[in-house]
Amino acid sequence: MRLKNYLLNTTTKFGNYKDIIGKNFSDFSFIVQQLFTTVPAHLKRTQEALFERLNAIQDLGISYLSPSRSGRSLSGGELQRLRLVAAVTGYLDGMLFCLDEPAAGLHSDDAIKLFSVLESIKKRGNTLVLMEHHPEIISRADWIIEMGEGAGKNGGKILFQGTLKDFLLQENSPTRNWLLRLNKSKESPRKIPDQSKNLEVKNFSKFGIQPISAKFPLGHFSVITGPSGSGKSTLLFEHLIPEFQKETYAPLGLKKINILSTGSFQGNKRSTIASAIQISSPLRELFASLPESKLRGYSAKKFATHTPGGRCETCKGEGILTSPDGFEESECPVCLGKRFRDEVLEIRFKSLSFADILDLSVEEAMYLFEAFPNFFQKLKTLADTGLGYLHLGQTTNQLSNGERARLRLSIALQKKTTEPSLYLFDEPARGLHEIDIQKLLELFFALCKQGHTLIAIEHSKDFIQNADYVLELKTNHSSQ
After folding, report:
1. CA pseudo-torsion sign 359, 361, 362, 363
2. pLDDT tens-digit readout, 301-311
3. Helix (H, G, I), strand (E, B) or coil at 80
4. Do domains 198-265+399-479 and 273-384 have the same CATH topology?
């Protein structure tokens, strides 16, 4: 608490300040309304705004949280909806709300609650435009626009736009067929042989969640699902990880742990796909080792964009110029977007300059570096997560949330090990379309075949239907 003791010890009939903010929002809301039944006229609007936000927290289904709870202990879905509280309160009308995957990482129950809140915003006379892959949101939309057919340069086409009724009649629509398949399929895990070795959890409880017991089969793929507040993130980060660190699972033969979170990947204009997957340095060294580079005395630094030497100094190696207000970008008139000086671009590898290679897609670069394992394996991992269309020189601030999530996942998966390992995933399918989810599942199955144990927090029906073991948690009890 960052308050002085005399403030923390200020007492009401409901307890002191510390006691009150330690309660969940349901109880906190009741207490606040009892304490502030009447307020001075100049604080009336403040009182109304406070009550509106508390009501919004109730409507969004996160009233089990407490005002004093640390933000670090919250799941992605909880943080997402907390950020929405400010947007859904007030009396704004005639507004256009553009939301980027607001239901990403949400359980179906939570997505339905979210949609009811979005409906209330719409009824005030506002317009909402959502970029969304969640089936519960798509199936309730008034107007659907499907983009495709592929990603990157293979996308950009409008495959369909219209009402849900017309959308469901489009037999060639990948998204429509996916929705119908999800509705027909049963959410039941695949059958696996009985085995004695399991990663067992016995009556774990923390942060007020009900005791959780589970048996995750070794060498298989397990999914933990359930609405927000049921204890998924708590089980993963407050039990499984600490227990592994205590070597509780050592007798099971699990030698290493890999924690793969697809949370926020902060891209920037200096970071490229090549640098993110750590092939920039080997690529500079490769060009520095070429005969022409040695003849001219070029070192690897000559091919760097982050330091002076071989880069274009007009754009500082970015290939673009940004307006003073930061909103407009234009191609550098000196290097014409190539990032380097002309003499550097004269150095060629298989007839391609450094700039030419940065302009290649990941898939194209795989063929170019097929005989170079240190390049090929990193590129292949990225392609396996469905990002083969990205260009090596593309800056990470240009990526969508889904692309950033998969890029982060790809970086983590590059650290492969032959020893039996425990892989823990926190919502790996967040913001992904069904096509991308299938590619991700193939990657997961390959890891299981290598003897690794995978446990993922996930709400995607595709994941649940393909899991070997499913632990579904409830807000008041758990079941499997």
Report:
1. negative
2. 999 998 899 99
3. helix
4. no
